[in-house]
Amino acid sequence: MASMTDIHSYLAEFEDIPGTRVFTAARARKGYWLNQFCMSLMKAENRARFKADERAYLDEWPMTEAQKQSILDRDYNRAIDEGGNVYFLSKVFFTDEISFLQAVGTMTGMSAEDYQAMMIAGGRSPDGNRSKKDNMPGEGR
Amino acid sequence: MARITAGVAASHVPALGAAIDNGKTHEPYWEACFAGFEWTRQWEKQEKPDVVILVYNDHASAFDMNIIPTFAIGCAERYKSADEGWGPRPVPDVIGHPDLAWHIAQSCILDEFDMTIINQMDVDHGLTVPLSLMFNQPAEWPVKVVPLAVNVVTYPPPSGNRCYALGEAIGRAVASFPEDLNVQIWGTGGMSHQLQGPRAGLINKPWDTAFLDDLTANPERLRHIPHIEYLRETGSEGIEMVMWLIMRGALGPRVKELHRHYHVPASNTAVGHLVLEPVS
After folding, report:
1. Where are the domains of chain A?
2. pLDDT value at position B130?
3. Omega of the bond prior to B265 within 30 degrees of 0, cis?
4. Most buried residue, A11, A42, A78, A110, by CB count within 10 Å?
5. Fold (CATH) for A23-96
6. Peptide bond into B156 cis (omega under 30)
7. Residue B136 CB-half CA count within 13 A
């Protein structure tokens, strides 16, 4: 059998990945109500109420102001920083009737056209994107 | 007795389901992607499996932040297509096989795998897209399905080694089911993709190709890949590939690759597809 993995070093390694927020327990706890709000959008009547008055609908949830603002702004990097998870946030994408491709592209700083063109050309290379430490000059392994 | 006759791996990108549902599979963007599943559609018509054990992950559809089971087995009579935010996919209800599912659940628990048992849930694109890829758009699905949902969303997901060992336990459980059934096991999700943050869009064809190769050539290597390697090399959502190892573990020590397909992109994702046959 594999030996027990130390949870502290296991979690610490995640912070070394560039441009990525791993959905750890800490993020899941922080984002609990944000993600539960997203789940509510699986019901058509809730989607209609949210679309009619987004602010009022968000105010029904015990979310932080930063979480609510990230949704109002459709700033998905911010929403993930506030504990959101992309599969939960996808309920907002679909409520807005936009695709995963369009919504995910907004997190990259690229235009929708450039992001789609990058994907058709084979996607983003892992080279230079594996490790923050490895990307620091003179600090490579 | 029941027997596992084949393993199938396939990505379960929601856009694949939308392309099928909206009649877009022959559009230039999608044509090459779907062409790689034609072989398998014909093969499935000949194989006529009775049951598919379908390993997938729920994407915040049946399970929200309140209940996060690591391994959950569906023991219900039937499952409806989930409304993920744009209305349920227009696909037939998924018909379960409660006798086999409960047999696997009981056997695995006695075999020291602590399964969560699900008697009521809706199934999302993770389960219905692979059915559409293999069977297209029938009025009724031609197989019964035992859903096996794996947590790969909230960390930590199970290790690859644990997934492989669960597959082995499922293989033993199926072999002791008294009814004569032709059973396939499907592992779904992957391959490389990242759906969040500035690094979104990451694709790693060399890594994916080595993974596809070693499902046949060296599964021992795959079961010991740590989560951090999936994250660095295949993007934050590439971790779904641990589910392929449940499928692989259930097939026994040696397999033969019958069919392979790899295509970039479907939406944000590298699509991988394999058909494997156990070799006795």
Report:
1. 23-96
2. 98
3. yes
4. A42
5. Protocatechuate 4,5-dioxygenase; Chain A (1.10.700)
6. yes
7. 14
Residue type, A8: H
Count A/B contacts: CB-CB distance under 8 Å: 166
Helix (H) or strand (E) holding B258: strand B255-266
Residue A126 with chain B: CB contacts under 8 Å: 202, 204, 207, 232-233
Taking an 8 Å cut-off on Cβ atoms, the answer to whether A19 and B161 are in contact is no
Do residues A23 and A85 make contact, with C-beta atoms less than 8 angstroms apart?
Answer: yes
pLDDT digits (tens, 9 = 90+) for B106-149: 999 999 999 999 999 999 999 999 999 999 999 999 999 999 99
The answer on pLDDT for A2 being more than 70 is: no
Pairing mode, if any, of strands B3-10 and B182-188? parallel
Question: Of B84, B228, B267, which has the smallest distance from its Cβ to A101's Cβ?
Answer: B267
For an interface test with B, give the residue of A129, A132, A133, A135 to mutate (most B CBs within 10 A): A129
The owner of tokens 């290790």 is: B159
DSSP state string for A87-100: HHHHHHHHHTT--H
Task: Domain count for chain B, please give it.
Answer: 1
CA A129 to chain centre: 18
For B149, the token pair is 């949902």
Residue span of the structural domain in which B157 resides: 3-199+213-267
Whether cis (ω within 30° of 0) applies to the bond prior to B121 is: no
Instruction: State pLDDT tens for residues B152-173.
Output: 999 999 999 999 999 999 999 9
pTM: 0.97
Strands (E), B17-157: 51-56, 71-74, 78-81, 94-95, 116-118, 122-123, 144-150
CATH number of the domain within which B21 lies: 3.40.830.10
DSSP 3-state of B165: helix
H/E stretch holding B29: helix B28-35
**Which of B12, B97, B193, B263 is an active site residue?**
B193
